[in-house]
Specification:
This protein is of the alpha/beta class and 269 residues long. The chain is built from nine helices and 14 strands.
Length: 269
């Protein structure tokens, strides 16, 4: 049986596991990707629901999780935030910096239960990854059952294309890894020009149809299909965005399951 959420958290935290989730976890949950529009331990340090949801999908009581902060050039602050968050969970954390002495990448990444990618400059992240052969290792990990997850740039990277603000002049279409068909626009409600930029790219045929994800929302894929859309904030949403036959853009809100907020460890009874 899959682990109960309590087994993943240190302290007396409320449970967010559901019978439906448990039934689905028993089923074939091999190739999983969780694309988070924004939030997680870097943006919502007192709201761990998305982090816990990611860890749950490993279906182990003490999963190993590796953080890849390549997009932000592995700043100490992001790494400290990751280990601080993981200190509250029953998991085995590690991180990979490609800007210092680099370990055996295959041994590190393919031994994980979860690989979690941070945000930052997505174009630079993908370029560095290609130099080190990371895309091939991530594909192998995905096919081996390692849960792939990420926030912002760590969300769009799994798709064929993404909308990025890596360039100073504004939003741009960026080719990505292509594990999930279509495109992704994270931080959809986080910046005023995200929605019009994505709609414009789709309308002009500059980007494929795809998914837009608000801060605090995540789309969970099993294989290439949507398994669930979850959120750490009541108003957070995700959308399917595609062109219409008359040259417009259609935006369809996806059904979201709100994961109720959990208290901080200090506030636990």
């Amino acid at each position: 049986m899959p682990p109960n959420t309590r087994s993943l958290v240190i302290g007396n935290w409320p449970d967010i596991w559901t019978p439906r989730c448990a039934r689905n976890m028993v089923a074939n949950m091999t190739r999983q990707i969780i694309a988070i529009g924004g939030g997680g331990f870097l943006e919502e340090p007192d709201n761990p629901t998305l982090d816990l949801y990611v860890l749950q999908q490993a279906a182990k009581p003490h999963p190993s999780v590796c953080f890849l902060p390549t997009g932000s050039a592995a700043p100490d602050s992001a790494v400290v935030a990751f280990y601080s968050a993981c200190s509250r969970y029953n998991c085995k954390p590690s991180h990979l910096s490609l800007f210092r002495r680099t370990p055996d990448l295959s041994a590190l990444l393919l031994s994980q239960d979860v690989i979690y990618v941070g945000g930052g400059n997505s174009k630079s992240m993908l370029a560095v990854w290609r130099e080190w052969g990371i895309p091939e290792l991530l594909l192998t990990a995905w096919n081996s059952g390692v849960v792939l997850a990420g926030v912002c740039g760590g969300a769009l990277c799994w798709f064929e294309q993404g909308v990025t603000d890596s360039f100073a002049h504004g939003m741009t279409v960026l080719p990505a890894l292509g594990l999930i068909p279509g495109s992704c626009c994270p931080h959809y409600d986080g910046e005023a020009d995200r929605r019009p930029a994505y709609h414009g790219f789709v309308q002009r045929g500059e980007i494929q149809a795809g998914f837009a994800i608000d801060i605090g929302a995540a789309i969970h894929f099993v294989g290439e299909e949507i398994h669930a859309v979850v959120a750490s904030r009541p108003q957070a949403k995700a959308y399917r965005v595609k062109p219409t036959d008359d040259g417009d853009v259609h935006e369809e809100a996806l059904q979201v399951r709100y994961l109720r907020n959990l208290p901080t460890e200090e506030g636990a009874g």
